[in-house]
Write a structure and sequence with these properties.
5-stranded mixed sheet, globular, alpha/beta
Amino acid sequence: MGKNDVTNSAGENDKDKETLNLLTSTQIVIHDALQRLGLPEAAFELLREPVRMLHVRIPVRMDDGSVKIFSGYRAQHNDSVGPTIGGVRFHPKINDDDIKALSMWMSMKCGIADLPFGGGKGGIICNPRTLSFGELERLSRGYVRSISQIVGPTKDIPAPDMYTNSQIMAWMMDEYSRLRKFDSPGFITGKPLVLGGSEVREEAGALGAAICIEEAAKLRGLPIKGARMIVQGFGNAGSYIAKFMHKSGAIIVGISDVYGALYDPDGLNIEYLLSRRDSFGTVTSLFDGTITNEELLEQECDILVPAAISNQITAKNAQNIRAKIIVEAANGPTTNEATRILSERGILLVPDVLAGAGGVTVSYFEWVQNKQGFYWDEEEVATKLREKMISAFHQINEISIRSHVNLRTAAYMVGVRKMVEASEFRGWI
């Protein structure tokens, strides 16, 4: 895809033709943000793709004695501000473009939260549901061996992502420490507390999104207590968001997982659902009378939280969304065309690069604690996170108002600025 393709797409054609490609849609918004800031075209040429993309092949001895070869990736979007940082996901549907886009979103999150990092992202094409505990460990360690030359606490810091957890981070840290022959807790975040993890890290992404929900509700004069909320996705982020917002007095009227959705206009029994979900966030298979994820998105509610996968709200269903506020807790759940339609309808949409910045913010806190060897309690981490999220939310809202743009464009305007300035000082552009 050439420069002119992005320029054209960011102009009149963007309103006429919708793209579901995450890399292309991200490039469009970055280009628009840079143009609105009056920044040089060279900045876009630098930021339109990662500066480094590694594709690896990982041989793993399976439990039956056979050897299976897995494909993996690690993208480093931009390291002008500092080391790159970002999650590693285990998922059967991963490709180059998605990993590139995810690393670019991480750069935006770091800029929005004013962290000394650029964005990174990694992944392995696999179905973790079909792998034994031992196979998962061997795969995790093999991935670290494959990427070990380009990662480290001053180069690129991995973290948990979709279908990875603190145990997998622990295996990865141990393997990296063996390779380097010294203990390296700062190599990775999302670790168990006993291995140098941080309080709040497991629920940080959801807590950051919950803070954004609260701030968005204040903007619209909507009390959280009694607000009717739908959460699409019941994995780590979705389940914690449902838990936090239920505790705050919201009525959770809908939830979903990969198998379907539950909806009750009078409210669901969230405590019961949380107690029955499995480690992959599935629970709806236990119930009859479910509806589809697509149907759930179009149910009436005050606040809609897409916390599942990308491209869930598109030009096809954006007119049918019946929420006052949308807060994106997933990566890329709303297309650019759908964002435009929702904005024109007066629906407040808080973008993923803002609402999802809680995870990388607490990863930064964990990295800092590992460097200094002094660890904060839960209250201190939560307080620092809240301060960062509220500051970022209102900065982006002010730019949105001043520049007459939606919150997504405003968030990208904040996200790119620090990287461009650092790149200029380094003499890269």
